[in-house]
Amino acid sequence: MTNLWRSWHARALEAVDGLGLLALRLWLAQEFVQAGWMKVAAGPNAPEWFAGLSFPLPLALLGPDWNWRLAGWGELVLGGLLAVGLATRFSALGLGVVTLVAVNTVHFALGWSGWNQIETEAGQGFKLPLMMGVMLLALATQGGGRWSLDTLGARYRSKPSSG
């Protein structure tokens, strides 16, 4: 009976292996793709609210329009890569940078006391970007998981060639 349980348990764990990473990838991808598409669809010129932000160096040297374009295309392309699990670690790190810049420029209105706040009358906290950053850290360190193009490519490359 114990062997039957262990066998069933092992098969169940194998069946769901990578499911959590897939869920993280898809959730984050839809968030970033949506945000990126909003920027790209709005055009190449930054809106007033974005143009009024103070960007950290070296991004401040680019000006608001280039930051708008880079953020939009970065979120769109890296979010798409994250969705299919291609270059997952690179995509997660890139989106982590986008998230850090967003926290620095938009979500830090409450200072460090905003770590557990979303939006208040006093300004925006960085609870959501912090949660997204933790999810991105998991993907950057663990990769895309079993159900990703990264894993499919690694399997393909590791197969011995015949002939």
Provide a brief overview of the structure.
This protein has one domain (19-144). 68% of the residues lie in helices and 2% in strands.
Structure description:
With 163 residues, the protein is mainly alpha-helical. It has one domain. Helices cover 68% and strands 2% of the residues. The protein has helices at residues 2-16, 19-42, 48-51, 63-84, 88-107, 127-142, 149-158, and strands at residues 119-120, 123-124. A two-stranded antiparallel sheet has the order 1-2. β1 and β2 (123-124) form a beta hairpin. α2 (19-42) runs antiparallel to α4, α2 (19-42) crosses α6 (127-142) and α5 (88-107) runs antiparallel to α6. The protein is globular and about 65 Å long. The protein starts with a helix and ends in a 5-residue tail after the last helix. The mean pLDDT is 91.
Q: Any descriptors?
A:
7 helices, globular, single chain, about 0% strand, mainly alpha, two-stranded antiparallel ribbon, about 160 residues
Task: Find the count of extended strands (DSSP E, 2+ residues).
Answer: 2
DSSP summary: helix tally: 7
Q: Give Rg in angstroms.
A: 20 Å
Mean pLDDT: 91
The largest pleated sheet is described as: 2 strands, antiparallel
Quote the distance from N terminus to C terminus. Answer: 46 Å
User: How much helix is in the residues?
Assistant: 55-70%
Shape call:
globular
Strand ordering within the main sheet: 1-2
Assembly state here?
single chain
Q: What is the helix/strand order?
A: HHHHHEEHH
| Stretches with pLDDT under 50, minimum 5 residues | none
